[in-house]
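Summary for the lay section of the report: proteins are chains of building blocks that fold into shapes. Here we show the chain for NYN domain-containing protein and then a coded description of the shape we predicted for it.
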Amino acid sequence: MTILDLTSHPIAAKYAVLVDVGYLYAAAGEVLLGAKERKEYRVAADELIQALQKHAEARIHGELLRIYWYDAARDRVPTVDQRVIAQLPWVKVRLGNLNARGQQKGVDAQIRSDLEALARHHAVSDTILLAGDEDMVPAVEAAQAYGVRIHLWGVEPPYGTNQAERLVWESDTVEIISADFLRSFFSRAPAPVPVPSTPIAPSPAQVFAGRTPATAKPKAPAGQVTKLGPSRPRVEEVGEHVAQKWILTRGRDNIRDLLPGPILPTVIDTELLIEAEKELGHSLRPYPEARVWLRDGFWARVYREFEIGVGVSSK
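The coded shape description reads as follows.
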């Protein structure tokens, strides 16, 4: 099928990009790495999204409404990567549920609903759809009935095709994203952290052993009242408590994605600070050293959970 160059279109378009992440990742993982499951590879999703945005800008003369990023998470609790993606400008993360067998539920329905709603309300004149499922066909036809042009993108397959034939037929234009375009954003996942067969939980003394004491603060000039900050043991205790809560609510697999540490993604580091301030009942922002203690406590609990060491400072 011929790919149309929309840059010559006389009327500026307003368009959205709808990405079925399950399809994109699975197809790219297969063609690039021969992978069958997402846990086998890592994706630089923020860089990939920026590249897709530039790719769209080069093909459609007009204004981007936003990029819709459709993915799934267990109990719809976002993963570390999904939380980072949600902070990106012009990106809307939509989450379906991931069941115990790793199957996505509700994602296709969200894509169909948004595609039809954008067309019905005349929010866009064009839509780029990066997907492959035949279930998209009714929504494509409905959007076209409202005058929206559908530009289907697919991932280069290792052989044959990885998109439904009817979906290809019904779309206005079709483009295949090459493996070379995607290659730099996908890499094999590191080997899993080994867990001892007979793990032994360290004692509290071992947890805090070897940590350097807080650096003494210089005395304030005579007549100046100093503002006392929180104590190190209390801040570290809160850091461990937040880590424990996240392990229980977000799941070990999501927390494992933070390893090996001790650097936290900015989004997660900010969430840690907010959670800690809520528990302490006051701000930690005037105390840079308290931020370090907070991270120390957080990592002490995470490392203990995965039996890979304790007491690693983030300083």
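Put simply, here is one thing we learned. The two ends are 56 Å apart (CA to CA).
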